[in-house]
Amino acid sequence: MTKTYLINRTGVVLMALALFSVSCKQQLDLTPIDSIDATKAFRNLSDINLGLVGAYAVLGTGDISNTTLVSDEAMLPSENATGGGVATHRWQYDGSSPSVTNAFSENYTAIDRVNRVLAAIDMVPSSAAEALIKERYRGELLALRAYAHFELIRNYASKYEQGAMGVAYMKVSEITSPSRLSFEATIAAIKADLVAAKPLIPASFTDKSRITAIAVPAMLARVALYEKNWAEAITYATETISLLPLATKAQFPDIWKDKSEAEVIWKLRKASAADGLLGNIYFNTNNTVLYAPSFKLMNLFDKTNDVRFASYIRIDNNRGVGKTPNIVNKYVGGTTTVNLADAKLYRTAEMYLIRAEAFAETAKVTEAATDLNFLRLARITGYTAQAFATKAQLVDAIYEERFKELAFEGHRFFDLRRRNANVVREPADAINALGAVLLTPAQAQYSFPLPNEELMANKNMLQNPLY
Amino acid sequence: MREIVLSGPERRSAMPKNILSSMTILAVVLMLSAVGAVARNIASPMGLIRGRVTGIDKSPLQGVSVIVYRTNIGTVTDEKGNYSLMVPENGNLLVFSLVGYTTIQEPVRNRTEINITLQADIKALEYVTVTGYTNYSRSQSASASTVVTSDKLAQVPMTIDQVLQGRVPGLTISSSSGQPGQNAGRITLRGVNTITGSTTILYVLDGIPIESNYFQNINPSDIETVTVLKDASATALYGSRGSNGVIVLTSKKGKSGQVSFDYKSQYGFSEMSSPTFKMMNAAEHLKFEEEVGLETGAASSGPGWTYSKKNPVYATKTAGEQQRYDSILDSLANKNTDWRKFFFRKGKFMEQQVNASGGTDNVRFYSSLNYYNQDGIALRSGMKRMTLRNNVDFNSKKLSGNINLTLGYSSSSFIESEGATSGNNPLSAVFYALPYEYPYYPNDTLVHSGNTSRFPVMDLREGSNALERLLNTTNKSNQVKGILGGSLNYTIFDGLVAKTRAGIDFRQSSDEAYINPDSYAGSRVSNGRKGSFSESSRRYFSVITTSGLTYNKTIADLHNLEVSALFEYNFRQNASFNYTGYGIEGRLGETPAGISPGSATAFIPVVGGARGHSALASYIGIGRYTFNDKYTLNASYRYDGSSTVPETNRWHGFYSLGLNWEAKKENFLSDVDMISGLRIRTSYGTTASPFSSDFGYPALYAATSYGGVPGIRPSTPGNTDYDWEYTKELNAGFDLSLLASRRVRIIFDVYSKRTTNLFFNRPLSYTSGFSSLLLNAGSVSNKGIELDLQVDVIKTNEILWTVGGNYSYNKNKVADLGESGEFTKDYTAIVREGLPLGSHFAPKWAGVDPATGNPQYYTKDGQITTTYNAATLSVAEFGSYIPAVSGGLNTALSWKGLTVTALFSYMDQVYRYNNEDYFNENPSFRTSNQSTRVLYDRWKKPGDIAILPRIGAARNYTSRDIYDASFIRFRNLNFNYNLPAAFVSKVKGVRGIHVFVQGENLKVWTKWRGFDPENGNEYARFSYPSPRTYTGGINVNF
Q1: Do A432 and B709 touch (CB under 8 A)?
Q2: Per-residue pLDDT tens over the stretch B331-385
Q3: How far apart (Å, rounded) are the C-alpha atoms in residues B779 and B834?
Q4: Which of these, B902, B893, B676, B901, lies nearest to B798 by C-alpha position?
Q5: Alpha carbon distances (Å) from A360 to A284, A404, B824
Q6: B267/B353 Cα distance (integer angstroms)
Q7: What pTM, to 2 d.p., does this model score?
Q8: Whose CA is closest to B54, among B64, B66, B67?
Q9: DSSP letter, residue A157
């Protein structure tokens, strides 16, 4: 073995290694396969739409399930052994309970997605022809931001009155530790976004699964209701009613089977089981009624003449021993996928009720009664108009009507809170509540708690009082 | 008769069989290489020596190397244990050695026949430290490592990772599932280094890194040794992948000589072990219902109240009705269904194996075929496995190499929803089901919630629904796994070897789940109510190549040097695809052909999947220098670049240094008979741990959809400073053996690790759109000791009785969290400076108020309150779910061919949240069955001193649910009998027979109240408990 021979051999091996290493270094520059790099997320206007859809995607239906659990519209039947929601139903929740705290992260996530798209919308190239579409997207984004903040304040404001604790208003996507605004400051910011959005969405855009030109005044009307700004409530409710009439008695049942969009202003579309099965809160596929309509609610209906009763509630007396015959039927849907149903967020009926309440509060008793009677006439066969002597009677009647009309649509608990009214369960509805029959504003659980994780991560964020 | 000629360079390419030789033989070999020239010159007259080598059971030992001391003259024994050897005149010492046996140096003393009995080497002191890059004898390694040998692995019906429990100090293994086909669960080495990063140990099989958690298709009988590398001097060789520890598996290699066959057959069964808490029987539950009715007024709580004499309604009934009520209650109270009979069974077990080994000095092979069939203790669960292994080693003058192949196919069937609290999980249903519920009507109809209107019952069918589901669904997983590795070593010149090694780890898993459309379970499928069929395919592929040079040189008989320079490239890829179809045609059943096509309104199938990839490139330098066989310096440097790190931090260097001192070889100790061996080592080095995600650093968007319309959403906020977690580890230890023939053996190590740049999710205000942001900050420390003590209590030529144990203690502490501050993590834990990771964080339970029955909690300043608020009350005083102490106790007795071994494993200072109690002792679930404590230990009236509050009180999570989960488990008892040679020799062609029986998981001593103290991690929740298993079998050697 000569020395040169050795050097040659070693040299060849080393060269081979060196070549190999160079090619491998380049092999390290791998890129994600299943994700999109943030710098390439928004390249054009259709990407903006994708981002906007992504913001809609996060909106949930916690209002509906939580209102069912904590208010007097539903009861826990004996056949429900799942334990699901029972602690919430019995008002045993705090900042560690996912049921009532989920809406917090959910809505802020939606807001952040909106803010990211808003930041990108003016960066992407768009032709003059696309300007209208771009402005519509901007309108939807602003209205969506307002909606999500309104959901936050509905769920987490300490009270719905001046000086109460509201929520932080996020206008840009950023990692900060904001503190809570007052209730009125939050409302002002929500209104500002809605007012800015209003002119941007053209009437020609009619996709009910998204925010349309009709939805913005409807949202403004509801905001005004919580603000007790009766003048604005009347203005915006009137505007909405003029854009979309009530459903007929024939159309009404089809709304809940998603076969009709009559009087539906905006609904969260649920296309497949992956989007969540709204009806599962009430009647699962295990043939178990998890939460049944309360007797308190059922007894308010004219069961034969009121078109709403059969649309919302089904009575099945053949379910067997120990099973409740009363089933919430509102979200069974109209497809073979049982319980797949769209969540109706705004309907014209609510606008009549908002306007009636605003009229009543502004001493326009006649106008208020007219609106209330008009709605009842549209729902109840053979209804004759009633007269109301006092404002108090009217408000009570409007509340009762809201209870019936908007049952299982996520309103009842918040409606009671608007007037600091107690949540009262009747004995027949409390057979499994183990004593949870009265919830008053003096109890912590009368307002929903902020999630504990938020309080730990953000020292500026304060919990609602009494927790 | 063959002569073994050993020379320097070929020793470098020695096969693991040789690698596994004891220190003594290696020491001899080293000397041989040094004095080889001298030895070859010996030409003096020779004498013939014959003899026979047997084991302690008098069975012949084949393949024992017999070498004349300080020469390269030697031979190996034949299949009858016989040898004959020409010994030069001045050869006065013979060295007998065999893998797994104690080496003996026997003086010739002018004899011509020398018969030797070798004892199985159960000392851990002299194994070679196999790191995957180096094979150093323990006397030349500074590494703290533990070797587990094949005799402890082969017979136990478990996966290779589970078998290690209790065997390795510092290795903590929690078997969270006892379901066949599942892996060990949580395995950590020397504590947990990370908050959110990976805790996964790196597994290396014959030099090829393999996937953790997929050991179903690795046959433990094919594994010769498992080497657990613990300290930085060994783990730093793996650089950025090393900080969680490395477990190196070495498969069995062929032995030269006549081809020999082994046949192993074992059968057995498994059964359920019992939980340590009691559920109510029928009469108890009815009484409970009655009490609830009385205590809460109008509550509807079940037939126990509805038909009770104490119910005000009872008095209003006619005498006839009252009689009927009484008889209803009476018949329910006597029902007492044993739900275990419906969900559990005795699981059968069977294993068959054939292996063959043989070859020449130049080519050797080991092949095995194994079939394994294990039924689980829960209905429907079980695993079948077939594995093939084929190892070929070859060497010629300059070239040597090997090819190692393992192929495995396994088919597992699982229960529904393991570990879930839903009633679909048979392990939870067995508790939820009411004792007076019986699944079948007298006409054998299974009554479930779907037909109770026709077959009225008075319960909620929780057990029957789960049973119906179990009988009408399937949940299967098939797995094909292949690991292929090969290496070539070429000696360029004496001492310099060019090496290359390549390997592939491949897995394809196919999972299937089916719900029978014609069953009640099928009618519950929301999409279409006609069953479903889903299938998923998961593929994993990883390739690695390692190439470089190794140079070895001995200078002047004093200095021994070995240095290597290597380049390594590792690429990993995974892909998955899945679909679920609906509207199944029942006659077709479990096939995609039965799926209805989706239409706008019905049966839309769900499709999903994912892709991922990562790459790692490394430059590795390794060196060892040994002076005079006494002092060894180990050093390594590895420069890693990974695609999982942003470009700015992509490349990083890792190093280690280690010293080993063979103190016994010093003059001042050589004459101390009391100390038969002493070795002192220390090491220091740096490592990092790999990331659990391929792309954790960029800000990313992912696809989403709303109402069937596609959209995008931000998925990670991104962090450009993303970097590795770096661990620095200092280790010091010694190996000490005492008394002649080393009857007392102690291995002791103490270590201190600090992991900095901790990678964790800093919690964010939800207003940022994310709940957390990944960042690198803070540090965690792990300090601990490890001890392994083995004592030969009796050691004669006839009897060997060894008793031993190992103990490890790890003190884990979060040292620093940077500006992030403390945060809660997972279900119950808080990450807080000064506390160990995994510390439970809960309001402190203050018992039940005897006056009101309300639950009470301690405020942080020790006051008692009845207002529950997890945010303000929670304290971290309840220990951690990561055990601080773990270990094992072992004993082995050998006498005349009979060997009895026993193993106990234990853990201490570990606390878990018993989530099962949350369901079994909760008013929200009072219509399900509950623990007897809910009946007997519940507050009922003022003055009651009770464990559980009144029935109407809130059931909140408190320290009451956190229990001590420490335990001692009687892991294994094994009787092994080698049939006497006299008997065996009568059977033609058979060289040896041994029979064995063993019991696995025989008993657990624990304070834990649930199924099994090992079930789960931070919380225990209806996991599949480890069964008690008995097997018996036979091994025949041809």
Answers
A1: no
A2: 999 989 999 999 999 999 999 999 999 888 789 999 999 999 999 999 999 999 9
A3: 11
A4: B893
A5: 41, 19, 49
A6: 12
A7: 0.84
A8: B64
A9: -
Euclidean distance between CA atoms A96 and B904, whole angstroms: 40
Distance from CA of B18 to the nearest CA of A (A): 28
Burial B644-666 (b: 16+ CB within 10 A, else e): bbbeebbbbebbbbbbbbbbbbe
DSSP sequence for B204-257:
EETTEEE-TT--TTS-GGGEEEEEEE-SHHHHGGGGGG-TT-EEEEEE----SE
What's CA B68's distance to the chain center, in Å?
Answer: 43
Phi, psi of B787 (to 5 degrees): -135, 135
HSE toward the beta carbon, residue B537, CA cutoff 13 A: 5
- Token pair, residue B1018, equals 């931070």
DSSP structure class, residue B279:
B
- Read off the tokens for A20: 């190999």
The three-state DSSP-derived secondary structure of A386-408 is CCCCCHHHHHHHHHHHHHHHCCC
Distances (CA, A) of A20 to A30, B491, B504, B544, B571: 18, 21, 18, 13, 14
Instruction: State the amino acid at position B473 in one-letter form.
Output: T
| Distance of alpha carbon A77 from the chain centroid | 26
Length of chain B: 1038
Q: And the tokens for A345? A: 């967020």
Contact: B713, A87; criterion CB under 8 Å: no
Using alpha carbons, select from B126, B95, B85 the residue that is nearest to residue B32.
B95
Q: What is the pLDDT of residue B4?
A: 36
Dump pLDDT digits (tens) for B464-480: 999 999 999 999 999 99
Q: What is the pLDDT of residues B932-970, one digit of tens each?
A: 999 999 999 999 999 999 988 888 999 999 999 999 999
* DSSP H or E run through B203: strand B202-205
- Which of A210, A434, A455, A464 is most worth mutating to test chain B (most B CB atoms within 10 A of its CB)? A434
Residue B978: both structure tokens together: 């080698």
Helix (H, G, I), strand (E, B) or coil at B781: strand
pLDDT, tens digit (0-9, with 9 covering 90-100), for B987-1012 = 888 888 989 999 999 999 999 887 78
Q: Which amino acid is at B830?
A: I
pLDDT of A5 > 60? The answer is: no
Q: Edge-to-edge strands of the sheet including B1019-1020?
A: B962-964, B911-914, B1019-1020
Beta carbons of B619 and A170 less than 8 Å apart? no
Counted across chains A and B, CB pairs separated by less than 8 A come out at 300
Question: To 10 degrees, what angle do helices A391-405 and A365-379 make?
Answer: 30
Of B162, B157, B155, give the one whose Cα is nearest residue B177.
B162
Residue A319 carries which side chain, given as an amino acid letter?
R
B628-659 pLDDT, tens digit each: 989 999 999 999 999 999 988 999 999 999 99
DSSP string, B509-557: EEEEEEE-TTSHHHHT-TBTTS-EEEEEEEEEEEEEEEEEEEEEEEETT
- Nearest partner of B681 among B751, B598, B580, judged by Cα: B751
Query: Is some CB atom of chain A closer than 8 A to the CB atom of B551?
Result: no
In the numeric block, the tokens 């939460």 are attached to A291
B699 touches chain A (CB under 8 A): yes
Using the structure block, give the residue that is written with the tokens 């390795």.
Answer: B168
Least confident range of B546-550, B559-563, B596-600, B980-984? B980-984
Residue B402's Cα: distance from chain center in Å?
Answer: 28
Please answer yes or no on whether A38 and B617 come within 8 Å at the CB atom.
no
Report how far residue A53's alpha carbon sits from residue A114's, in angstroms, rounded to the nearest whole number. 10
ipTM comes to 0.91
Angle at B49 between CA B48 and CA B50, to 5 degrees: 125
Q: Which of A29, A37, A51 sits opposite B700 (nearest CB)?
A: A37
Distance between CA atoms of residues B922 and A98, nearest Å: 18
In chain A, the residue whose alpha carbon lies closest to the alpha carbon of B468 is A286
